[in-house]
Write a structure and sequence with these properties.
alpha/beta; 7-stranded mixed beta sheet
Length: 189
């Protein structure tokens, strides 16, 4: 898996992007979530950010990305294909991967699509809880060209409570004015 690349570093810097926040390289395992998932550009920007972070981060992607001529490239870049089309205990399978490794970091977009959504898919949350790994929230701030890294968050197991922490963080990232944030925070007491 390609992690560090001078080419990715150069492209990231020349395009004007920068990392903001501490990279949690001390953690042996984590689940990284990235919002917003708004454009195809998220992937190459993410590769640049991963290279600059100098951290072995894999990613989960829909299995269709791994079919056809680019499938090998996505695998080489650290991708794991997931089949979202059927009820196949995907959460359990991913938790098993975390349990089988001494060190493992993976990223996903909990929105599940580049369209605006009313709620995040919750699989990421239950993966983190069952694998007993912290969640690292990363915001793609397209307004200021910043990859914003929040300190690791340990989920409590109460999604209704924890979703407020997640929504509050992403509400602070410029350009992430998503329906799901409003829906999560409207329930706030």
């Amino acid at each position: 898996m390609l992690i560090k690349s001078s080419l990715f570093d150069l492209a990231f810097r020349l395009s004007g992007w920068k990392l903001v926040g501490d990279v949690p390289t001390h953690l042996p395992k984590s689940l990284i979530i990235v919002c917003p998932h708004a454009t195809w550009k998220d992937f190459p920007i993410g590769l640049g950010a991963r290279s600059m972070m100098n951290m072995p981060i894999n990613f989960w992607g829909k299995k269709e990305l791994f079919d056809g001529p680019f499938g090998g490239m996505f695998s080489w870049l650290g991708g794991y294909p997931v089949d979202r089309a059927k009820n196949n205990n995907l959460v359990g399978a991913i938790v098993d991967i975390y349990h089988s490794k001494e060190s493992f970091h993976a990223v996903l977009a909990p929105e599940g699509t580049r369209k605006d959504v009313a709620a995040l898919k919750t699989g990421f949350y239950y993966i983190a809880v069952q694998a007993n790994v912290p969640i690292i929230m990363i915001g793609f701030d397209y307004v200021n060209k910043e990859i914003r890294i929040r300190e690791p968050f340990t989920p409590t197991g109460d999604f209704e409570k924890d979703k407020l922490v997640i929504a509050e963080y992403y509400q602070s990232v410029p350009g992430v004015q998503k329906t799901w944030i409003a829906n999560y925070l409207v329930d706030r007491v």
